[in-house]
Each structure stands twice: as structure tokens, then as C-alpha cells.
């Protein structure tokens, strides 16, 4: 029998997100109508042996509440259980992203060094691109060399919006 993943839409200040959860953890927060979101959904279906159902859950409602606070500039850290689904390497990279403080950025090279794989910058970039729990796992805080805005599954306009939002918070 397949596991059920609840899924809902959330309209943010910079675009529509799809949010999904198992019974007890958030497993998806991605940009709707983007290829990355569809890849993340297929990965969750396959690896969790699950199917999506359009309905809410306590986890989704809490995620929406915390996102509302984040976009209002009132939340700097999320307190929600996460269920990232990926390879061991991806999980390692995504864990490193959680260590980037609100309002700060790190380069792809800095993330590669942080996980002890200085020569794996491209692999780090690919893992970051596969992150299916955007904002909660802050891949938007990763920038290119010399702080250039590069690569973001939701689009560079959204990345710029999120970085500006965090830089303006009191």
C-alpha cells in the first residue's frame, strides 16, 4: 500500500509554491509550474512509495503559518520537521545549507569546503539544485563566486527577492 503525501498550494509574495507533507514532516516546498517541482514530486513518489493527495495536514498548515511570518519579516528560523529525500551526498549538502544564518550567503565553494569536498563544487551545485524543500532548506542563500546571483530552480528573480527580504529584516 502506498503512503499518502498531502499537497497544497501556497501563494507567496514572490510566486506560488507547492507544499507537501507526510503525516509528521514537510517533504516538499517548491516553485509551482517549474520543472524542478515536478522532478521533486516524482522523486518523492518513487523513494517514499507514495502518492499525492490534494488535502491539508497539520504540518502543511504550520508551514503556511511560518511562511506567512517569514514573508512578513517576522521569522528568521523555521521550526518544522523536515523530511528531505535524496542521496546521502544530497542530504549532506542540504544539511550544510541549514547552517547558513538568515540574511547571510555562502558560495558553492564554501559549501563544498564545509562538507569536506573542496573539489566537488559542481556536485554541490547539482545537489543544491535538487533541493525540494526551498526556503526551509535555504538554497537561495548560496551564491556564485564574488557574490554573483547564479542558479536557482525558482528563477533568479525569486532568489533576488528572498535575499533582499532577508537583508531588510530588522
Task: Tell me about this structure.
The N and C termini lie far apart (48 Å). It is globular and about 45 Å long. Helices cover 39% and strands 19% of the residues. A hairpin with a 2-residue loop joins strand 1 (3-12) and strand 2. The chain is of the alpha/beta class and 170 residues long. The protein has helices spanning 35-47, 58-71, 88-98, 108-114, 121-129, 156-168; strands spanning 3-12, 15-21, 26-31, 50-54, 106-107, 142-143. The longest helix is centred in the middle third of the chain and has 14 residues, at 58-71. Helix 4 packs across helix 5 (121-129). It has a 4-stranded mixed beta sheet with strand order 3-2-1-4, sandwiched between helices. The chain contains 6 helices and 6 strands; from the N terminus they run βββαβααβααβα.
Amino acid at each position: 500500500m502506498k503512503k499518502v503525501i498531502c499537497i497544497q498550494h501556497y501563494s507567496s509574495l514572490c510566486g506560488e509554491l507547492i507544499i507537501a507533507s507526510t503525516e509528521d514532516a514537510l517533504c516538499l516546498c517548491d516553485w509551482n509550474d517549474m520543472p524542478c517541482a515536478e522532478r521533486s514530486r516524482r522523486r518523492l513518489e518513487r523513494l517514499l512509495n507514495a502518492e499525492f493527495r490534494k488535502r491539508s495536514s497539520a504540518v502543511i498548515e504550520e508551514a503556511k503559518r511560518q511562511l506567512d511570518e517569514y514573508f512578513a519579516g517576522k521569522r528568521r528560523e523555521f521550526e518544522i520537521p523536515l523530511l528531505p529525500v535524496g542521496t546521502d551526498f544530497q542530504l549532506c549538502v542540504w544539511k550544510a545549507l541549514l547552517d547558513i544564518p538568515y540574511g547571510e550567503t555562502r558560495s558553492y565553494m564554501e559549501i563544498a569546503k564545509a562538507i569536506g569536498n573542496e573539489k566537488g563544487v559542481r556536485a554541490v551545485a547539482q545537489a543544491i539544485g535538487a533541493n525540494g524543500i526551498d526556503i526551509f532548506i535555504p538554497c537561495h542563500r548560496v551564491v556564485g563566486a564574488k557574490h554573483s546571483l547564479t542558479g536557482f530552480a525558482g528563477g533568479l528573480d525569486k532568489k533576488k527577492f528572498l535575499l533582499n527580504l532577508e537583508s531588510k529584516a530588522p
